[in-house]
Amino acid sequence: MLAVSPPDDQRFGLARHIVLPGPLALDGGASLSQIEVGYETYGTLDADASNAILICHALTGDQHVASNHPRTGKPGWWARMVGPGKPIDPARNFIVCANVLGSCMGSSGPASADPVTGTPYAMRFPVITIRDMVRAQALLLDHLGIWSLAAVVGGSMGGMQVIEWAATYPARVRSAVVIASTARHSAQNIAFHEVGRQAIMADPNWRGGDYYGQAEGPSAGLAVARMAAHITYLSEAGLTEKFGRRLQKRESVGFGFDADFQVESYLRHQGLSFTDRFDANSYLYITRAMDYYDVAEEHGGRLADAFRGTATRFCIVSFDTDWLYPTSDSRAIVHALTAAGAKASFVELSAPFGHDSFLLDVPELSRVIDGFLRAGL
């Protein structure tokens, strides 16, 4: 086991890495003999370990929630929400954010070395689910001595993990905040992901997933996958306001045709910059895990049964311009919670940014999260 700093270290944004002994049994029937977890912590854990908040990240996120990213140098993906004086405040809580199982920022995934062979798993890494990600997080919290969480908070795929935490470990979750998320992936969600996966696998540099150690990986395919996905994170009104049909001075950015429209250049930049920090095989595995996600199916086809008898407090938030996980998805979760007798509050916020609204400047979201978390103190 790798040495880690003690969980009561008070430094802000302390990056950690640990190897936890297994086996970790997976939903697909396979198991991992050990798991690596990259994670970051903020604040101080109380003597009774009762003030911990777990933040769950989205598909392309990572553990660097409020500190500068080590590869890009950019601020953490939720620095506007996590930090001193902010809704999730390390002065009040011990905050943990772990890189999900299957990802590429320190946690076990396709790029990790198979402990048996010593070579990267590649596509030999076992199939994973959202619930498998949550089980790995639970092992990490066990190691940190945290049994009861003051709250689990997440948006998009992070919200899926929050729901899974509440369904799988209800006794460990006192409050749950689910933002811009869903309890099951729709056919449309699966279709968009499949386009991205096919773009990666059509790249000749993918090599069946065995591109580690090669001079070139499937960066072109991964960039196209990111471009297609990024469109779903935005809103038509937001794109129109920001770019419209405005032309620009032609520039070639590696995709054959020159970028005539500003929106083309924007998407190409999003795609190419993504390849600097993400692994293509991880993208395949994580998008598949999201597509498998259906909490109701895990509980006999009835979503309410996933929350039957729970004492967890829930806050569900949606955005009016989010067409990837529309408000109707959030309402379905709220209806199930109500049917199960759970304590649930729900709000639809107005924002022009589409699905990405939970990451951007929406002051009302900060007020909602701050108020909900303070009410649970």
From TrEMBL:
Record: residues binding substrate: 226, 356
Record's catalysed reaction(s): L-homoserine + acetyl-CoA = O-acetyl-L-homoserine + CoA
Keyword flag Mitochondrion: no
EC id: 2.3.1.31
Keyword terms, alphabetized: Acyltransferase, Amino-acid biosynthesis, Cytoplasm, Methionine biosynthesis, Transferase
Active site: 156, 322, 355
Location of this chain's protein in the cell: Cytoplasm
Enzyme class: transferase
Major location (coarse): cytoplasm
Molecular functions per Gene Ontology: homoserine O-acetyltransferase activity
Statement: the UniProt record of this protein carries the keyword Amino-acid biosynthesis: yes
Pathway: Amino-acid biosynthesis; L-methionine biosynthesis via de novo pathway; O-acetyl-L-homoserine from L-homoserine: step 1/1
Ranges of residues in domain AB hydrolase-1: 51-359
Function: Transfers an acetyl group from acetyl-CoA to L-homoserine, forming acetyl-L-homoserine.
Subunit text: Homodimer.
Entry's family note: Belongs to the AB hydrolase superfamily. MetX family.
HAMAP family cross-referenced by the UniProt entry: MetX_acyltransf (MF_00296)
Protein name: Homoserine O-acetyltransferase
Organism (species): Sphingomonas vulcanisoli
Species classification: Bacteria, Pseudomonadati, Pseudomonadota, Alphaproteobacteria, Sphingomonadales
